[in-house]
């Protein structure tokens, strides 16, 4: 049987699939050619990340597909219900990238509170001629310890983020309409651990209380954070989005950054991805990454081997 990993797969995933008797194709096929390629090469399984879309047209055009796999959590680029109605298995790897995304959240938080993103832009330009000026400009940092982190969406990635925040000595609050409460276990290197309960509260109360806000939600029909929500937040709040583009009104965000209402933002995803707006890309108060939340070697290894395991189990 043949597996098309159109958005790539780790070496460990390839080896696991080949050991299970599958042929793995890692050719990158253009979106408009995916259906033809699948049919011409008798592909049984297509694996994607966030780039390739598997919609009704491909599902209808490729009756030989047995499994559609998503390397990651969200499956908004796959017509999941329609695929299942056609008897196709749809799989993903919800737990594999949680730690990597959570660490990136804190990369953005640390960058924001200590101006690292802007300092790294300006030091090469002015570090030798305006060292004291830059030192003064970036001298008003704040600590994360003792501050309140509001987590919107306390699923696997939200919980991984909560663990890191608790380890830093932050207060953690959460809002999640599907998870009323959750026990979060923080494990240490020597086998010791502590467990604390996080009880979900209203979005409005979270926005009012949090010093920093991080989003961990699937794609939405509308904004979770727009002009109205920004108005009720604390002055000087920091906002991070490593979840999905389109959950923050970017026009309202830029306005709030310009006014000082929002101290900084950290964005890994964008409304107009893969072509983010220039007003976002050029803003001195935004820490930027190009949708790399799950892009660590460890996460990709876990994703590859987990997908391989599920495929082998389903088709063996």
Task: Provide structural commentary.
This protein has 316 residues and is an alpha/beta fold. 38% of the residues lie in helices and 19% in strands. The protein is built from 13 helices and 13 strands. It has helices at residues 11-19, 34-40, 56-61, 80-85, 98-113, 116-126, 131-137, 156-167, 203-209, 227-232, 250-259, 278-281, 297-315, and strands spanning 2-5, 23-25, 45-48, 67-70, 89-92, 148-152, 171-175, 181-187, 193-199, 212-215, 237-241, 262-267, 286-288. A 6-stranded parallel beta sheet has the order 7-6-10-11-12-13, with helices on both faces. Strand 12 (262-267), helix 12 and strand 13 form a beta-alpha-beta unit. The radius of gyration is 21 Å and the shape is globular. InterPro entries: D-2-hydroxyacid_DH, D-isomer_2_OHA_DH_cat_dom, D-isomer_DH_NAD-bd, NAD(P)-bd_dom_sf. Residues 9-315 form the D-isomer specific 2-hydroxyacid dehydrogenase catalytic domain. Belongs to the D-isomer specific 2-hydroxyacid dehydrogenase family.
Note the main attributes of this structure:
single chain, 316 residues, alpha/beta, six-stranded parallel β-sheet, 13 helices, 13 strands, oxidoreductase
Q: Please give the number of β-strands.
A: 13
Range of strand content: 15-25%
Q: Tell me about the largest β-sheet.
A: 6 strands, parallel
Report the end-to-end length measured between terminal Cα atoms.
10 Å
> Which shape, going by the Cα principal axes?
globular
Number of helices: 13
Q: Which range best describes the helical content: under 10%, 10-25%, 25-40%, 40-55%, 55-70% or over 70%?
A: 25-40%
Q: Supply Rg.
A: 21 Å
N-to-C order of helices and strands:
EHEHEHEHEHHHEHEEEHEHEHEHEH
In round numbers, the mean pLDDT is 96
Unreliable residue stretches: none
Tell me the structural class: alpha/beta
Biggest β-sheet: strands ordered side by side in the sheet = 7-6-10-11-12-13
Family: Belongs to the D-isomer specific 2-hydroxyacid dehydrogenase family.
Protein name: D-2-hydroxyacid dehydrogenase
Organism: Flavobacterium soyae
Keywords: NAD, Oxidoreductase
């Amino acid at each position: 049987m043949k597996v098309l990993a159109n958005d790539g797969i780790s070496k460990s995933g390839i080896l696991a699939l080949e050991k299970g008797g599958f042929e793995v194709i890692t050719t990158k096929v253009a979106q408009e050619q995916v259906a033809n390629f699948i049919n011409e090469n008798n592909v049984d399984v297509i694996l994607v990340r966030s780039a390739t879309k598997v919609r009704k047209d491909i599902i209808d055009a490729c009756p030989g597909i047995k499994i559609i796999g998503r390397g990651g959590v969200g499956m908004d680029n796959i017509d999941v219900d329609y695929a299942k109605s056609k008897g196709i298995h749809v799989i993903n790897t919800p737990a594999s990238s949680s730690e990597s995304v959570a660490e990136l959240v804190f990369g953005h938080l640390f960058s924001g509170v200590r101006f690292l993103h802007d300092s790294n832009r300006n030091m090469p330009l002015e570090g030798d001629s305006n060292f004291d000026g830059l030192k003064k400009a970036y001298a008003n940092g704040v600590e994360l310890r003792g501050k309140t982190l509001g987590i919107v969406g306390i699923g696997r990635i939200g919980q991984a983020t909560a663990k890191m925040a608790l380890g830093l000595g932050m207060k953690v609050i959460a809002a999640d309409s599907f998870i009323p409460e959750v026990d979060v276990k923080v494990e240490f290197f020597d086998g010791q651990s502590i467990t604390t309960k996080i009880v979900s509260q209203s979005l409005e109360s979270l926005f009012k209380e949090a010093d920093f806000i991080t989003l961990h939600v699937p794609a939405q029909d509308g904004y979770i954070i727009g002009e109205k929500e920004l108005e009720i937040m604390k002055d000087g709040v920091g906002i991070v989005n490593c979840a999905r583009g389109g959950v923050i009104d970017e026009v309202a965000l830029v306005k709030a950054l310009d006014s000082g209402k929002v101290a900084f933002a950290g964005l890994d995803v964008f409304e107009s991805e893969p072509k983010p707006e220039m007003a976002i890309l050029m803003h001195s108060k935004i820490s930027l990454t190009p949708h790399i939340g799950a892009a660590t070697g460890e996460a990709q290894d876990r994703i590859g081997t987990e997908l391989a395991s599920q495929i082998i189990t389903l088709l063996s």
